[in-house]
Design a protein that fits this description.
The structure holds 2 protein chains of 2 kinds. By secondary structure, chain A is mostly helical. Chain A has helices at residues 2-24, 27-30, 39-48, 61-215, 252-264, 274-279; strands at 217-219, 228-234, 240-247, 282-287. Chain A has a 3-stranded antiparallel β-sheet, with helices on one face. In chain A, helix 1 (2-24) runs antiparallel to helix 4 (61-215). Chain B contains 5 helices and 33 strands. In chain B, the strands form 8 sheets. In chain B, strands 6-3-7-8-9 form a 5-stranded mixed β-sheet, with helices on both faces. A 4-stranded antiparallel β-sheet of chain B has the order 12-11-10-33, with no helix packed on it. In chain B, strands 13-14-15-16 form a 4-stranded antiparallel β-sheet, with no helix packed on it. In chain B, strand 14 (237-242) and strand 15 (249-254) form a beta hairpin. Chain B is globular and about 75 Å long. Chain B starts with a helix and ends in a 6-residue tail after the last strand. Classes of the chains: A mainly alpha, B mainly beta. The interface between A and B is large, with 48 and 41 residues. Strand 4 (282-287) of chain A pairs parallel with strand 1 (23-27) of chain B.
């Protein structure tokens, strides 16, 4: 658009320049012809021209006659000539005038054309200008729009980027939360399992306690204040693999009775789950008749 | 949450590493009872050839009598010696011949804690025999080689095959001490006076029986009253009060040959002899200066020291196990009560305060309790144990009949006493110090008086 504008701008400029040139620079070609003067002025000039030799004194009649004659002739001739010349000139003038008129008409026409053209041009230019302006405006507007749009877009982008970032952050948070939740859930599952295991163990411990208490025969006449700790290792079937006195009561027969009770109770009840079983592979009996 | 996470992680790590919490199971219940054991006679096919026939036991069977091996017979005797001993329960008595066996497994299968193996082994000289006894703790860890080994493996060399009774009692005591931690009293004796009418006359016999009340042996017999026998600490003598000269005099009887010597014959009463724990002195009661008073006689120097004074009746002295004090019965504050005299500071203190009358006090071997007779308002006497520290008193007998003369076994587990069963009739009974086990000892018919338990006797 701007290019076409520039082009038309250039064209109009060229046309103007041409017109100026025709109007100014084109004169010499027109003035190659005789000066465009009015005919009276030309005549006056011709009359005044012989006055200058009148400054010479003492000239004879004949001579004067002759001279007058000659002058007359000459004058005649000259007048003739002058007439002729004038006529020619007039004709020429007339031609010139005609030509000028033509030229003038042509120039007028041209001018008019020019004017028209110019007008047209002007008009077009203005229009163009307008258009250009409009376009410019449009352009500016567009640019503004674009800028605005761009700004808006940038803003939008920023916003969106922020949103994306936020979303990413959210996602990250969510992921974190999810993993934390998963971890928590896993932990809760483990805890639940551990709790279940613990409960299974507790139940089994109670059964073991009952069983061992049932078979334990402590020696007659030993004091109640004795305490004996026995570490027990079980095999997979709950059989007592080993029973060691880890803290003796100081009363050998009491300790032996405790060991005997542990073996006597073998195989001991096992918890249901393998986890609990694994945890109950080894534990300690505290034989304490004076205890709770 | 982070902490929980750490805890969970730690817990996980711990369980992976096997460092889990060590569960503890408290066993507070259970019941008191005898330790179960099995007695096995390891019979050597050669044995019967080695042992004279008259030393082999006989057993009545459907088809007549059957001769048992010496080891079997000994085992039977050990079982008898331990009968009624509440700490041990013999579940099985059997013979074993042939190849050795894993007695731990054997015992576990029979639900006993111990297996006792008795075996008679000929010695190299071809004349003597060694009694080998093994005690197996069936729950004992096997040896590093994986073999189960006896817990105790001992030999008694040069055994006298004719003394099966005393051997069995000795073995029974060893078993009792090894297995229960408390010395057995199977080889101890109880002396008592049996009053009976023989040929129309009152006859007094100083008898000795074993701890089961069996195998009575009369060491002295008299038509005059015999009272208050007292063992010397070495078990070789008995002091007693004899009325053979129509008054109470103190005598000492040597058990090895039955000879007796008079210790004191002061004017008045000479009674209630009590040997000091070191055997060098004797506490006694003399009334040479009026009322019966406690004296201590130095048996080496014959120096007599008067312990109590006054007009009250003081009698029945008994030594504390450490020999530093005496307890005795006195009516110095009214009804009979038990008092203590301490030699070092010559302090006399009353030990019994409960209602009723107290007499015949003697210390338990740990010196912490007194066994005594408690006469209630009903005039019935009961044997009781008084804890000196707490003043708690535990009655050991609850029969309506009268009781008398409690005497404590040297292991402090038993009290022997006489219990009146009718007019002019009484019998000997044994009760555990907690009052739980009470048995009638012996099958004597008559009037049992003053049973007194011996100290541990040298084999």
């Amino acid at each position: 658009m701007s290019l076409s504008l520039q082009h038309s701008w250039g064209v109009s400029l060229g046309v103007h320049l041409m017109l100026v040139f025709v109007l100014l620079g084109g004169q010499p070609s027109v003035l190659d012809n005789p000066p465009l003067l009015p005919p009276q002025a030309t005549l006056q000039t011709a009359r005044t021209l012989p006055q200058e030799p009148l400054h010479v004194a003492a000239i004879s009649n004949a001579e004067v006659q002759a001279l007058v004659q000659r002058w007359e002739t000459e004058e005649q001739e000259q007048s003739q000539n002058a007439l002729k010349k004038t006529q020619a000139l007039e004709q020429k003038n007339k031609a010139l005038e005609h030509k000028v008129a033509e030229e003038r008409a042509r120039a007028d026409a041209a001018q008019k054309e020019q004017q028209r053209l110019a007008q047209q041009q002007h008009k077009g230019l203005a229009q163009l200008k307008n258009e250009v302006e409009q376009l410019k405006k449009n352009l500016v507007q567009a640019e503004q729009d674009v800028a605005q749009e761009r700004a808006r877009t940038a803003e939008e982008v920023t916003k969106q980027e922020a949103a994306v970032l936020a979303a990413q952050k959210d996602l990250q948070e969510a992921r974190k939360a999810l993993s934390a939740e998963q971890a928590l859930r896993e932990m809760m599952r483990q805890e639940a399992q551990a709790k279940a295991t613990e409960e299974a163990i507790e139940r089994t411990l109670a059964r073991i306690q009952e069983r061992v208490s049932h078979v334990w025969t402590r020696p007659v006449g030993v004091p109640d204040a004795l305490v004996c700790e026995i570490e027990v290792q079980l095999n997979r079937q709950g059989g007592v693999h080993a029973a060691h006195v880890v803290r003796g009561s100081g009363h050998a027969s009491f300790d032996r009775s405790a060991v005997a009770a542990v073996y006597e109770a073998s195989p001991l009840p096992l918890p249901e789950t393998s986890e609990a079983q694994a945890l109950l592979q080894q534990f300690t009996f505290v034989f304490e008749p004076g205890g709770a | 949450m982070r902490i929980m996470w750490w805890v969970a992680t730690l817990w996980g790590m711990c369980s992976v590493l096997g460092l889990h919490a060590n569960y503890r199971i408290a066993i507070n219940q259970g019941h008191e009872g005898a330790i179960p054991l099995a007695l096995v006679a390891w019979v050597d096919p050669e044995e019967n050839r080695l042992v004279p026939e008259d030393l082999l036991g006989e057993e009545a069977t459907e088809h007549g009598s059957e001769t048992r091996s010496w080891a079997s017979s000994l085992t039977q005797h050990v079982q008898e010696a331990l009968q009624g001993m509440p700490r041990l329960a013999i579940q099985e008595v059997t013979e074993h011949a042939g190849d050795p066996t894993d007695w731990s497994l054997w015992g576990r299968a029979r639900r006993v804690q111990h297996v006792v193996l008795l075996r008679l082994e000929p010695e190299e000289d071809g004349q003597h025999h060694t009694l080998r006894y093994q005690i197996w703790d069936v729950f004992r860890e096997p040896s590093p080689s994986g073999l189960s080994v006896p817990w105790i493996d001992k030999r008694i060399k040069h055994v006298d095959l004719s003394l099966q009774d005393s051997l069995s009692q000795h073995v029974a005591d060893v078993l009792h001490e090894q297995i229960t931690g408390v010395p057995g009293v199977c080889a101890t004796r109880i002396a008592y006076v049996l009053k009976d009418i023989e040929e129309g006359r009152w006859t007094y016999a100083l008898n000795i029986v074993d701890a089961q009340g069996k195998h009575p042996k009369t060491v002295l017999k008299s038509h005059h009253p015999l009272v208050s026998p007292s063992w010397s600490p070495d078990g070789r003598h008995l002091a007693y009060v004899s009325f053979q000269n129509n008054r109470a005099e103190l005598y000492r009887l040597r058990l090895s040959d039955g000879t007796f010597t008079r210790i004191t014959h002061f004017p008045g009463i000479n009674s209630a002899p009590a040997w000091s724990p070191d055997g060098r002195a004797m506490a006694l009661v003399l009334s040479k200066s009026g009322a019966p008073k406690i004296y201590v006689l130095d048996l080496d120097t014959h120096v007599l020291e008067q312990i109590t004074y006054g007009a009250s009746l003081d009698t029945e002295p008994s030594w504390s196990p450490d020999g530093r004090s005496l307890v005795f019965t006195s009516n110095r504050s009214g009804p009979p009560n038990v008092y203590r005299y301490t030699f070092a500071d010559r302090v006399l203190e009353r030990l019994t305060y409960a209602p009723g009358q107290f007499s015949r006090a003697s210390y338990t071997p740990d010196g912490k309790k007194l066994v005594l007779l408690h006469r209630l308002a009903s005039r019935r006497e009961q044997v009781a144990v008084l804890d000196l520290a707490t003043q708690n008193m535990l009655p050991l007998t609850r029969h309506a009949q009268a009781h008398e003369a409690p005497s404590v076994a040297p292991n402090g587990e038993w009290v022997v006493y006489a219990r009146e069963t009718g007019p002019r009739a009484s019998r000997m009974e044994r009760v555990s110090l907690d009052g739980q086990d009470q048995v009638h000892l012996g099958t004597h018919v008559g009037w049992v008086q003053d049973p007194v338990w011996s100290p541990y006797l040298a084999r």
